[in-house]
Amino acid sequence: MGFSYINSSHDYDENTLSTTTTNPLLQKLRIVQGETVRLPSRGLLYEDGILDPNVTDGEVRISPMTIRDEILMRSPDALLSGEAIATVIGRCVPQILKPLQLHYADLDFVFLALRKVSYGPELEVNYKHDCEPAKEHSYIVSIDKKLRDCVYLDPLTIQDQYVLYVEETDQTVIFKPIRTQDMIDILAPQAEKEMTNAEIEQEMIKLATTQIISIDGETDRHNILEWAAQVPAAVMRSIRLKLEGMERWGISYKFGIDCRDCGNHVEAEVPLNTVSFFM
Questions:
Q1: Domain count of the chain?
Q2: What's the rounded Cα separation, in Å, for the pair 218 and 230?
Q3: Of 25, 81, 85, 119, which has the highest C-beta tally within 10 A?
Q4: CB neighbours (10 Å) of residue 82?
Q5: DSSP H helix total and E strand total for the chain
Q6: What tens digit of pLDDT does each residue of 226-235 get?
Q7: Is residue 11 part of a domain?
Q8: What whole-number distance in Å separates Cα of residue 81 and Cα of residue 69?
Q9: Dmax over Cα atoms in the chain, in whole Å?
């Protein structure tokens, strides 16, 4: 479903690839297979309309990328704006209807699986150990192992993970996992104009409350921001600690290697993100 098949004729517009008859060269492309994977979130915590209604237990079909997808994924501007993510996932994983609303852990998993079905089961990464004679070397990571070792969200722990009772104010705060659009907003380059202290303060509060869905059932973002600006600092600290301590699920960014300089076995951490997969 993710492969874009094109009907063709001898006469076509190279800009639009519009066609009138079947291109015999494309018939065998129909045998190209993808892979069915289960999202780390199992599809939990998503509102209706983000995943196809037929998705069960977070299982989606991933088809290989085409050259169009690869070109788009190599564009830093398209990546940072979210255009590449939305377009490529829309074509290769059409059961994900709103890619930018994916939990970020799901996004990393999807792109790792997409890297596998498009290029093979291994990924080359660069790493430099912190030993004295260290130099940067390339190492091979097994994508299959990373996908197999994925930690899935446990539906029995959702209540504990994403709910915090604030004793100081006798209020209940409900959180959500960070989503792709949240990360795009956080990583977006700031405007070149100088920000006032008040504007900087407001941005920091917005960042601190990104994952808050509601407080005592109140979901209005303005009210939540105003609350966060006025509660005791200890309350916001407890929220930060809650977010930092949430059980981690998704793929691991660590892999074991034997350092080629000192010979020691180390647990290296490499950011397996959308940029590193395709740049």
A1: 2
A2: 16
A3: 85
A4: 17
A5: 11, 9
A6: 999 999 999 9
A7: no
A8: 15
A9: 73
